[in-house]
Amino acid sequence: MAKHGKKYLEAAKLIDSEAVYEPSEAVGLVKKAATAKFDETVEVAVRLGVDPRKQDQAVRGVVVLPHGTGKTQRVLVFAKGEKAKEAEAAGADFVGDQDMINKIQQGWFEFDVCVATPDMMSEVGKLGRLLGGKGLMPNPKAGTVTFDVAKAVQEIKAGKIEYRLDRAAQIHAPIGKVSFSEEQLNENLKALIDALNRAKPAAAKGVYLKGIAVSSTMGPSVRVNTASFK
User: Fold this and answer.
1) Could you tell me which residues are beta bridge partners of residue 171?
2) Phi and psi torsions of 144, nearest 5°
3) Is 33 exposed, middle or buried (0-12, 13-18, 19+ CB in 10 A)?
4) Helix (H) or strand (E) holding 61
5) CA angle 43, 46, 49 (to 5 degrees)
6) What DSSP designation does 2 have?
């Protein structure tokens, strides 16, 4: 059993662990229960009625949160020539080709997201072990392997996040910071759940949204009424 500090236990008294709350009420409780001295991230855990072992029930995609995540993403773009110039103009933090590949091979990882043009993937693929282990490998399904590098960079900077089903049939994703307003967090939460509903596999049977919980980095979780999103 995990041991919690005095602040956590006091915050937990605000929440009925057996109850399910409407989204706006749940978000409000998360904000009230956040007691850390830093601006905590508000996170969502969604349990889905799918079998993660089956390829035809995989759930993975991206969504642009209307109010972003509150975190400035450092974007690295692997591109050459005109595409490199487009990436720079769009606000990419780092742009290059073989020079960036060499830096990463030497242990440099001062970035949060990677984008690559398709013609660079034969070289970027050599970093599979290094980038894949950190969840940084560019992927067409996530929109990070594309010739439209300007759009990719702009969306990431605007708050695009990637979601992916884990082995426990859950999706974990950030929807902002405790400092966000309740309205902003609610709109981000709705955008994520709407995206998950659109991504429902055809092979999924029965109840799809089985459980939703929101919490801050250091705070207790609050269960959300799934029926609010159907």
Assistant:
1) 46
2) -105, 5
3) buried
4) strand 60-64
5) 170
6) -
pLDDT in tens, 94-151: 999 999 999 999 999 999 999 999 999 999 999 999 999 898 999 998 899 999 999 9
Query: How high is the pLDDT of residue 56?
Result: 94
The predicted-structure confidence for 62-100, as pLDDT tens digits, reads as follows 999 999 999 889 999 999 999 999 999 999 999 999 999
At residue 176's C-alpha, the angle toward residues 172 and 177, to 5°, is 120
First to last CA, the chain: 34
Nearest to 49 by CA among 210, 220, 218: 210
State the Cα–Cα distance between residues 14 and 16, nearest whole angstrom.
7
Q: Compute and round to an integer the Cα radius of gyration of the chain.
A: 19
